[in-house]
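Batch manifest, entry 17 of 40.
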Amino acid sequence: MVFECQRDSFKTEFDTKVVSCKPAELETLNNGKKEKLSGYEVILEDTVLFPEGGGQPDDRGTINGVEVLRVTRRGGDAVHFVQNPLEEGIEVHEKVDWVRRFDNMQQHSGQHLITAIADNTFGFKTTSWAFSKDKCMIEMDTPNITQEQMNVIEDKCNEAIRKCTTVTPTCYEQDDEELKEIRTRGLPDDVVGQVRVINIEGIDTNMCCGTHVYNLSQLQMIKILGVEKGKKNKTNVMYVTGNRVLNYLGKCYNTERALCTALKCSPEEHVDMANKLQKSVREAQKSKTVLLREVAKYEAEKYKNNPNRENILSIHRKDGDNEYMNIIANDVGQENGVVFATVGNEKGAGLFVLSGPADLIAEVGQIGRASCRERV
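Output type: structure tokens
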């Protein structure tokens, strides 16, 4: 079924009727933790809220003022999850979260354009793509994409945007012969009704259920941020388009200003200054390691040379490490007493070393294990 949101991607409000409303649960993530929400699955006669599909996230919005938390496709139906019931048979008014919808449209149309240009120019086939909060990723079936190739793809994409290239959706019956000539990765098994095709004039024709812009000028521009090594000898292309380009540029500028203040230098000097600071940190860490070794040897000698020493040396150092503890334990020696050395923040996790005569350490170890079991 082709929904109203697919017939007119720029429509933000729509009147329709409730077909069914059934109790359901929705599993969500809240601060990284899984959470189940109780609510209702609502099916409408038609909908202007896009159900997730084709790699595009679902829309958000309202039905009669009730917030829609998820929209999924189930066969020929779009299923809307809400937390308040809606009476079956009543007329309802839908509103779309336009900021989310338009961002999804820009990123999705941008993906189609990059995919087509990369394929037409270099033969790079797209195998998948994914949204994220700040940028999007296209997985291409090639082990490597050079900077020069990225520049060519980006330039051709932006040239098509400047030419105000039209983007046209067309619907076909599933048995239409024309569909055999159209690029696709296959249709889902539960597709019902007509098949929708997106045509970017002179560039690409591709089956797709998602919402798209009507003209590439509505993308404003595309920026390919870079590439990363993907799975199975593939390459991931990271990109932003539309309003995300402006947001990304704004974040970069704010970060640049903050670095200028922190590093007390111009943007052109940031890399050199960061390298100098890293070198200073490495040298300081090296000096600290040498000093810790000397301190550890001093603590061990002080203990051994104390005629009134106790049979156990208990020592803690917040900035110590494994080597610090081991030097103390080895220099004191098992024959000279028990060493209980600890390192780390007193309020957080830390490390310890317990060293001494074998029989005594075995007895203390049993006590320690018992204590740990009690705490657990």
